[in-house]
User: Fold Putative HTH transcriptional regulator from Desulfurispira natronophila.
Amino acid sequence: MLDKLDIENRTAARITHKERIEQPLWNKVALREAVINAIVHNDYTTEIPPVFVIYSDRIEITSSGGMSTIKSLDDFFAGYSKPINRELMRVFKDLEMVERLGSGLDRILPIYGKDSFKISQNFMKNIFHSDGVGVNVRVNKVYEYIKTHQPIKANQIAQNFPGIAQRTVERWIKQLKDEDKIEFKGAPKTGGYVAKQ
Assistant:
């Protein structure tokens, strides 16, 4: 499955006024962790296997379990997990495909945030938008927010996007700077980002 998705994870190019930036449709590390999590933590007593679906603008990874196995969202997003397939977990660990419990979230959340997780009573779904589509939509939202709240600092922008890591928002800000759409004006402590267009 990982090899198949690696083939589907095509590299797209984005041209800025400074450089040509090439990147895969989905972050490779986060995608790998989401796939492994879906397999290892799936509730196989339901006889429902993990499902991987690729759309034109996103990939969706669904596993059986959800709140019936997680119990607490706070604990889940804090990285505390109790594997329901201990033998399978041990096999993946022996193959060095997993490290410690909860480490996969550390590789997913900084890139895609909590909003990429859709958790119901019996299912969990990861939705990763293609960097060429979903990310650009969110980058445009950041740009519009800057235009209506300028001048504004990066941490203030990040506060308006709950569930998205500040590091991710800062990466979007850098993209807007590279595209010559925004600039930082003023002193580091008192200034902020403003739109150039």
Remarks:
- Strands lie at 11-15, 20-24, 51-54, 58-64, 117-119, 123-129, 182-185, 192-195.
- The mean pLDDT is 85.
- The chain has two domains: 2-129, 134-195.
- DSSP finds nine helices and eight strands in the chain.
